[in-house]
Every structure is written in structure tokens, then in C-alpha cells.
Amino acid sequence: MLALKLNQRVELKKPHPCGSREWVILRVGMDIRLRCAGCGHEVLLPRSKVEPMIKKILSEEASQ
């Protein structure tokens, strides 16, 4: 299990339709809310689906 925290930037394996692979974590729990760093689109997905999609953690905290 990954140690995911609020405001972390993560890179996913597949790009979003806008072309960005970077996402910011907005909510952590059984579900994880992500915001695309490219277009700002937000999604809420179960943790069990998100963890295998993460390629690497880019930073501990995103710039606000």
C-alpha cells in the first residue's frame, strides 16, 4: 500500500485525454480524489483502482 498524502503530485501510467500525466491528490481514504495538473478535471476513484495506476510520486506537496 502506498503512503499517499494530500497535495502530493503523482504521475500516472496513462495520460489524461488533455495529455498530462500529472495529478494532484485532493482527498485520501477509501476513495481518492485527483485533479489533473493539465486541465483541472477532478475524479473520485476507489483506492484499489488508483494505486496500481500510479507510476511514481513526483513531490510531497504541490505548490498552492
Number of strands: 5
Mean pLDDT: 91
Q: How large is the radius of gyration?
A: 10 Å
First and last CA, distance: 27 Å
Q: What structural category do the secondary elements indicate?
A: mainly beta
Number of helices: 1
- Main pleated-sheet profile: 5 strands, antiparallel
Runs in which pLDDT lies below 50 for 5 or more consecutive residues are none
SSE order in H/E notation? EEEEHE
Shape: globular
- The quaternary state of the protein chains shown equals single chain
Strand order, biggest sheet? 4-3-2-1-5
Helix content range of the residues, please? 10-25%
Strand portion, in percent? 35-45%
What would you note in describing this structure?
By secondary structure, the protein is mainly beta. Helix content is 11%, strand content 42%. The chain has one helix and five strands. Strand 2 and strand 3 (31-36) form a beta hairpin. The chain is globular, with a radius of gyration of 10 Å.
Task: Jot down its keywords.
64 residues; mainly beta; 1 helix; 5 strands; 11% helix; 42% strand
Secondary-structure blueprint of this entry?
Elements: E1 9-12, E2 22-27, E3 31-36, E4 42-46, H1 47-53, E5 54-59
Antiparallel strand pairs: 1-2, 1-5, 2-3, 3-4
In a nutshell, what does this entry contain?
This protein is mainly β and 64 residues long. Helix content is 11%, strand content 42%.
